[in-house]
Design a protein that fits this description.
Elements: H1 2-28, H2 30-34, H3 37-58, H4 64-81, H5 87-116, H6 118-139, H7 146-197
Helix pairs in contact: 1-3, 1-4, 1-7, 3-4, 5-6, 5-7, 6-7
Amino acid sequence: MTDFIKGLKKFSIGTIAVAVVLGIVLIAFPSQCIDYISLIVGISMIAIGLIAIITYIADRTSSLPLVLGILVLICGIIVCARYRAIISIIVVLFGIFITTSGLVNIATSIRSLVFHGVAGWLTMALSVVTVIFGIVAITKSSQLTEGIVRFIGVSFIVYAVLGVVSLIQVKHMTDKVKDAVDSVSDIEVDAKEVDDDK
């Protein structure tokens, strides 16, 4: 289970890094990106796939980055090969992904409110914004303008920020669980020593 979480964390870090770069490109060069947004997304997917595969090669603790990396890499190659024909489809898929991610994070943030207070509210706010961005991307997929492209770029940045916040929260919860397990282990060791003394 620990290896699975570590593998998922490494894949998430790669996704966050690519999302930030892609968001900046879309915000800075919207007019150039309108005709090539599918190609940019395809290249980004290839980058994510390669990062995940390299991560697996460097640290073979979990095969999850390898599996996800290969899948994303293949999808990226397909998108690049057909980028002119699937611009609106890519935007819709992106919108669905962002909306789904936001809804999942809303559900998660409700629980986070109990454990993280202010950080939980931050996650909730970012999740709601992510859902709104996703819905706009879906409904405006056939009307790509510079404004919409910039809007999509901002949504990538928000997604990345939400990913960073989620990773920090997961680490915090993992540390708490680890401390609790260590405390129980220490109590068991002390109890055994007392029994041995008797």
